[in-house]
Amino acid sequence: MIRKLYMKPFVRELLRILLAVTISLVLGFIITLLVSEDPFGAYQAFLTGPLTRINRTGEWIKEAITLTLLGLSVALVFKAQLFSLGAEGQMLLGALVSGTIALFVPLPAILRIPLALVAAMLVGFLFGALPGYLKAHLNANEIVSTLMLNAIALRLYDYFLIFHIKPDGAGYNASDFFPKEGILPTFIPNVPFLADAYELFSRRANVTIMLYIAIAVVVLVWYLMFRTPFGYELRMLGANIKFARYGGIDTKKTVILSFAISGLVAGLAGAHLGMGIHEKLIANITIGIAFEGIVVALLARNNPVAVPFAALAYGYLRAGADVMERSSDVSREMVLVIQAIIILLVTAERVLPIVQQRVSASRRKKQNNNEVPSIEEGGQNAV
Amino acid sequence: MPFNVVLRSIFSAAFLASVLRISTPLILPALGGLITDLSGAINIALEGIMLTAAFTGVVVSAYTGSVFLGVLAGVASGILISYLLGWFHLFLETDIILAGIAINILATGGTIFLLFVLTGDKGNSQSLASGRVPNVILPLIEDIPFLGRIVSGQHIFVWLAFILTWLVAIYLYRTPWGTHLRAVGENPEAAESLGINVRRVRMIALLISGFLASFGGLTMSMAYLTLFQREMTAGRGFIALAAVYLGGRKPWGTLLAAILFGFAEALSHQLGSLRIPSQLVQTIPFVVTILALVVYNLREQAVIRERRRKFQEQHLNTVATVKE
User: Fold this and answer.
1) pLDDT tens by residue, B206-241
2) How confident is the model at residue A355, as a pLDDT?
3) CB-CB: which of B99, B279, B301 is closest to A347?
4) DSSP string, A122-175
5) How many CB pairs lie under 8 A apart between chains A and B?
6) Which of A24, B1, B12, B292 has the fewest CB atoms within 10 Å, i.e. the most exposed one?
7) What percent of chain B has pLDDT over 90?
8) Where do the domains of chain A lie, and which CATH numbers do they carry?
């Protein structure tokens, strides 16, 4: 029974990832033991922190929303076996465009917010389509082109922020706070019978309606990937590009679209950074989160439905690290070390299959000793 | 009027000397990127290797009081990190890009984490008295009016960058190891069938790139500045990768491309003082790189088309002669 369960790829994947996360957390604890005066207190803060206060929980949820969008963005290109490191640039431009609209376009909230979000998605779409086009038609290395576009986007963002958006005479590089019409509303509607919950959340942890948008995007990406011709082409491309081409799929169009849609989602994540989290535009708005979508997509194995769960889990670690830094002598960068170990363990194709091969080999030996004929032979180590 | 000022400042010896200084931490990792790129792997981890070396160099030189030991330890740490990358990529079959990203995250987090443990400060290593590598003063050349001020008095890594470019060029094009390396990058299956150990060649390429990128990191923390700052490499590892492509995947081309990037950065510093937005000037090299990428690939496609046409012509001719 257990063995049968283990043979299911889904269960095996889950075990693999849980094992990788556990190993990384144990290594993190060993590091804490070495550097901290109170390692148990520090690690407790790390592991339970996000649940101890409502505002910390709010931070965690907000982090998870950004991570969900980024994870979806990355999964869309990874699914086609392509690489894009362009999320940073797309986020920056998304934040810039949506922030400019939130600040300066004199429309009521009901029009201003959708306009800002759509503009962020549009700019992300275009900025994503560019490396896609270069890849599809010129076979230009997408890693280099997306990295270059990130560098360009960063400088454009700084330029507009410093020379056009920053209020005159401000000592630091940031915009004014967005007006009320430019900030996403709290996710609980302000109606009488929910007044208490609304009060609690809007004051202490402003989780915005982006929560619902993120869930909708998860469903849409899932639908796109598994229920539309484009999704089929995308997955074919990832499975075997030559076969896809001989099968009559317009691979160039699919490559461009997958990059562009990935950029669209990243642009939305950028809008969330400005209108949902910081409520203003600041310098280095994407710092520390630019490459995080990759971890989420890896943990979710590029499955859009698994992405929010991976984002919640990974966001929990990041939020916990913040709490740990504030309440102990261990700095939050430990979570980066844990993150790196998770990536290495999850992506090392041979680490966990090796364990598995050994287990099944020893089982087989035992079975042979008992002279029980074994039906399953090998073939399970392909992950 | 401001344009005149710009021109005059660009052609001053001090400015050109600063271009060399700013280019050095780009040239060295770019050479590393070149070698891994030619061996058929892309080294995203240059950034992380630089950071690790920069940090280790500062810490070791501060605790031992020896600049030499600091440099040695910095280079050793960089090679170690690239060994880690190679081990995961070549023996555990991790995707090299994902492993590279992991290494970068590890280096960013690890250096800040250790900096805090050692100094109680997460920003920089000001409280550690770390060393600086010596300057090279050229006795006679120093007195030449314009040139002397550019080339004399530069720190030792500037010279190292040029010497290493020369050595890398010799290694790649004048030694059997270089030929093997390029063969592996060009067509690993063919190289394997000729008895070249692809895995070993790639590992050596990664280790060399770690060695070169380490000097880039040390330039930042022990020559350009004399302390470690968090994330002080600020994307130079990625710019270095761009220089490889802009330089047409050739050693001297890579060097020139890196100097072009250095020139743009130095220029943007100058323009900043003239109230011209430096951010816009800084985008120029990246735009140029994308254009170079486009041109490179267009040329590549043209070559393939040409080859195909020739092959078809030849083939059709043979078919024709056989029929006759």
Assistant:
1) 999 999 999 999 999 888 888 888 888 888 888 888
2) 52
3) B99
4) HHHHHHHHHHHHHHHHH---HHHHHHHHHHHHHHHHHHHIIIIISPTT-SSSB-
5) 133
6) B1
7) 31
8) 58-330 (1.10.3470)
Name which of A141, A148, A291 is nearest B101 (Cβ-Cβ): A291
A40 part of contact set with chain B, CB < 8 Å: no
Q: Sort out which chain B residues have CB atoms less than 8 A from A158's CB and list them.
A: 279
Q: A345 contacts in B (CB within 8 Å)?
A: none
Count CA atoms closer than 13 A to B192's CA, side-chain side. 6
Whole-angstrom distance, CA of residue A310 vs CA of residue A304: 10
Identity of the residue in A141, A150, A348 whose CB atom sits nearest the CB atom of B92: A348
- Interface pTM (ipTM) of the complex? 0.82
Residue A66 CA to residue A278 CA, distance in Å, equals: 12
pLDDT digits (tens, 9 = 90+) for A101-148: 988 888 888 888 889 999 999 999 999 999 999 888 888 888 888 988
Torsion-angle region of A302 (φ positive above 0: left; ψ -120 to 50: alpha; else: beta): left
What CA–CA distance (Å, rounded) separates B254 from B234? 20
Please indicate if any CB of chain B lies within 8 Å of the CB of A156.
yes
Kindly report, residue by residue over A185-244, the tens digit of the pLDDT: 777 776 667 777 666 666 667 788 888 899 999 999 999 889 988 888 888 888 877 888
Calculate mean pLDDT across residues B28-44: 91
Query: Which chain A residues have a beta carbon less than 8 Å from that of B88?
Result: 344, 348
Out of A31, A156, A344, whose CB is closest to B99?
A344
Rg (CA), chain A: 23
Q: Are B286 and A152 an interchain contact pair (Cβ–Cβ within 8 Å)?
A: yes
